[in-house]
Amino acid sequence: MTIPLLEYSPTTQNQRVEGFEIASPEKPRIYTTEGLPSSVEVDELIWAAYRQIFNEQQLIYHNYKNALESQLRAGQITVRDFIRSLLLSESFRRNNYEPNSNYRFVELCIQRVLGREVYGEREKLAWSIVLATQGLNGFVDQLLNTEEYLTHFGYDTVPYQRRRILPQRSQGNLPSARMPRYGEDYRQKLESLGYFPPLMPTYRWSWQRPPYPGWVRLTGRLIALTGGGLLTLGVVAVALAAWGVISL
């Protein structure tokens, strides 16, 4: 028996505020297959889908799915099917699902699939239960079948961050792309495995390596004293010139 999704209350976010806006550079571009797009527009749509799901940090050739792209261009699958296949791909699982806890993965998917921030801990808990009981496939299917997704993106539109900017506000929400694909706990695990060795400074001459020889320390003191003396003389000279005592 499938556990039903826990109820949670929406919080006030930009995307829940009704309003009418004019076109501006801050307004997200909508990529859709409605209206018979040209081949160039389909290429841009595919690129937008990769950027939305994999984020800027993972836009590498290895993550491209040529077979899926061909099916989308031929009209054999919808944009929603393409998004689903990207979410269930091995590269997305390896780079986003496996390094994260269920809570963080849910937050990441809601940002990229529903185009908004999570409503709170209650929503993360609700979707984490779905992920734990139905697995990644069941979680993705249920997320794409929500009324929220179908209302705003349907079968033909690439998800995007909804209403990041409001005309009534001087500052909008931060882009969802700022969230890295894994958290601090996974980075610490990688560091313990030796993936991020500390950078060791390189020295061209032996006297650059601490502890410094005595003559190097003495030379440094002389340079500092000489520079300080010249600076003091310059300040005094400018002050005397300002008072008319001397002319420069």
Helix content: 40-55%
CATH class identity of the largest domain:
Mainly Alpha
| CATH topology (level 3) name of the largest domain | serine acetyltransferase, domain 1
Structural class of the secondary structure composition? mainly alpha
Termini gap: 92 Å
Strand content: under 5%
Shape-level CATH architecture of the largest domain: Orthogonal Bundle
Question: What is the mean predicted local confidence, pLDDT?
Answer: 81
**Strand and helix order:** HHHHHHHHH
| CATH homologous superfamily classification of the largest domain | Phycobilisome linker domain
The Rg value, from CA coordinates, equals: 29 Å
Overall domain count: 2
CA-based shape: elongated
InterPro entries: PBS_linker_dom, PBS_linker_sf
Family: Belongs to the phycobilisome linker protein family.
Keywords: Antenna complex, Membrane, Phycobilisome, Thylakoid, Transmembrane, Transmembrane helix
Protein name: Phycobilisome rod-core linker polypeptide CpcG
